[in-house]
Specification:
Elements (H helix, E strand, L loop, with lengths): L1 E5 L11 H15 L3 E7 L2 H6 L4 E11 L2 E11 L5 E6 L1 H4 L15 H18 L6 E5 L6 H7 L5 E6 L7 E3 L19 E2 L2 E3 H8 L2 E4 L2 H6 L10 H5 L5 E3 L29 H11 L9 E8 L5 H6 L1 H5 L4 E8 L1 H13 L4 E5 L3 H10 L2 E4 L9 H7 L3 E5 L2 H6 L13 E3 L4 H15 L2 H12 L5 H16 L1
Parallel strand pairs: 1-2, 1-6, 2-5, 6-7, 7-11, 11-12, 13-14, 13-16, 14-15, 16-17, 17-18
Antiparallel strand pairs: 3-4, 4-5, 8-10, 9-10
Helix pairs in contact: 1-18, 5-6, 9-13
The protein binds adenosine-5'-diphosphate (ADP).
Length: 474
């Protein structure tokens, strides 16, 4: 099959979260299975600076954007996994420090930026060879593509993946002329949602198939609690919606061959995990210690349950427990995390920022990963944690519920600790269980071994997507 992926993130060239990891891995896995796969992204500054051997093609594509006509030059390159990637060059839109906007908020011209990109995608698809049969689109930035394909009756089938329903690309109705769609599209049956343009809704309505990144999340988003206002729209279209778990990228996340670690370790040879803990302690300014070490590696947002971590900080530190937080995001939460580390320098450390290498060391050196997310479409961090023998303590929601086997007091088995109510109390309860297991080395080792043997391969996900494409083409 001939497939074109369109998105705004691709690890390691442009990344703010898990979407980038999916774009790095899934096209590569599909290519391995014999399909012809290409990706298209905006030529963001970070991509221009990091993707090697970019080549300018002779394609110049022009699309209407409101009253004017806008053009883009198309560059071509290959990812480190040897996947072909097209880059849409538009300096005034994409040659910026951030992908979507600075920490203080979104860029004010995001409607123009991503409507433009969404218009270029189907046009590019008509020019590249082999001609794609399927456009596989990801998150709201490409949400209008299915509407453009429908309105222009283009010969492509569209699959759209929701990586996070909370980000919908909402713009006021006055931006509608920028879409150049027939006015009938600005209606409740189309892309309008409460007098606004809603890019995600556009995709839900017009894509031929919808997927999201875990079976549990596919169910949850059809309920008012998790539907972010779109539960009815989704429920009406559940016939075309399914959940496919993301895989973990074990070529980048494997303690057996992770160049960042002082020594490799694995399920059959776990002892050297301790060396990572010692190295980590040194790096944050502590002497080596024997006590449970909890970590957070996350965007610092409400979604990720960071307020719960802050509220449970006392519980975490009891009996010598320590916490290291790596993250960036909401400025208020960043400040609260910094404050906590300043108040308890001997047991809490914080690194505010995005640091891939430190994320690996932290993953290896910690005993437990905290992920008390209010919702979690799939979550990749917990998959990596499992492979590193770092037991997740997580809320029972979305992909966390689908990938973590909760510790069972009767058998002592499980791969992590789950709690249900999004409260500091029920989170603290899970922390206490984890600490009890930590005190019993043989139970801890048994859980670690089981966690490290879990397998969430991209092979399996790629096979499920393949099935979806095949049915679309038929
Ligand atoms: P989301 O996509 O919602 O942010 P995921 O768990 O799916 O969450 O993916 C997060 C990815 O980003 C993981 O690869 C994780 O290691 C990485 N990550 C998050 N925050 C940081 C950070 N501050 N520094 C380095 N890596 C980070």
């Amino acid at each position: 099959m001939n497939l074109l992926f369109a998105a705004t993130e691709l690890s390691p060239y442009a990344k703010t979260g898990g979407l980038a990891d999916v774009l790095a891995a899934l096209p590569a896995a599909l290519r391995q299975r014999g399909h012809s796969v290409a990706c298209v992204l905006p030529l963001f500054r970070s991509i221009r600076e990091t993707l090697p051997e970019l080549r300018l093609t002779d394609l110049i594509l022009s699309v209407p954007l409101g009253a004017g006509l806008q053009s883009a030059r198309i560059w071509e390159g290959r990812t480190d996994r040897d996947v072909r990637v097209f880059l849409v060059e538009k300096e005034e839109f994409f040659d910026r420090t951030y992908l979507y906007g600075p920490p203080t908020g979104d860029y004010t011209d995001n409607a123009s930026r991503f409507f433009f990109f969404s218009k270029i995608v189907p046009l590019l698809a008509r020019h590249i060879r082999p001609t794609p049969q399927i456009l596989h689109l990801h998150d709201w930035h490409t949400g209008l593509v299915p509407a453009f394909v429908r309105s222009e009756r283009l010969p492509f089938r569209t699959a759209f993946t929701i990586h996070n329903l909370a980000y919908q690309g909402n713009f006021w109705g006055l931006d509608f002329p920028l879409t150049n769609l027939p006015t009938a599209y600005f209606s409740p049956a189309g892309i309008e949602f409460h007098q606004h343009i809603n890019c995600l809704k556009a995709a839900i309505v017009f894509a031929d198939r919808l997927t999201t990144v875990s079976p549990r999340y596919a169910e949850e988003i059809q309920t008012p609690e998790f539907g972010c206002g779109l539960s009815d729209v989704l429920r009406e279209r559940r016939y075309k919606l399914s959940g496919i778990l993301n895989g973990a990228d074990y070529s980048r996340w494997d303690p057996g061959r992770d160049p960042v670690l002082p020594a490799p370790y694995s399920a059959s040879n776990p002892a050297a995990k301790q060396l990572s803990k010692d190295r980590l302690a040194k790096q944050v300014g502590w002497e080596p210690f024997q006590a449970p070490l909890f970590c957070v590696i996350s965007r610092l947002t409400e979604q990720k349950g960071i307020p719960l971590v802050l509220d449970a900080a006392g519980e975490l530190q009891k009996e010598g427990g320590r916490l290291v937080v790596l993250g960036e995001g909401d400025p208020g939460l960043e400040e609260r995390v910094r404050d906590l580390a300043r108040s308890f320098p001997e047991s809490v450390a914080a690194q505010i920022g995005f640091d891939e290498a430190f994320a690996h060391l932290l993953m290896a050196g910690s005993d437990f990963l905290l992920m008390p997310s209010l919702f979690e479409p799939c979550g990749l961090t917990q998959l990596y944690a499992l492979r590193y023998g770092t037991l997740p303590i997580a809320r029972e929601t979305g992909g966390l519920a689908d990938t973590i086997v909760p510790w069972d007091a009767a058998t002592g088995l499980g791969t992590g600790f789950l709690f249900r109510a999004p409260t500091a109390n029920s989170f603290s309860e899970a922390v206490r269980k984890a600490k009890a297991v930590y005190q019993d080395p043989s139970s801890l080792q048994a859980m670690r071994r089981e966690a490290m043997r879990q397998e969430f391969s991209w092979e399996q996900s790629a096979e499920s997507y393949e099935e979806i494409y095949r049915r679309l083409i038929e």
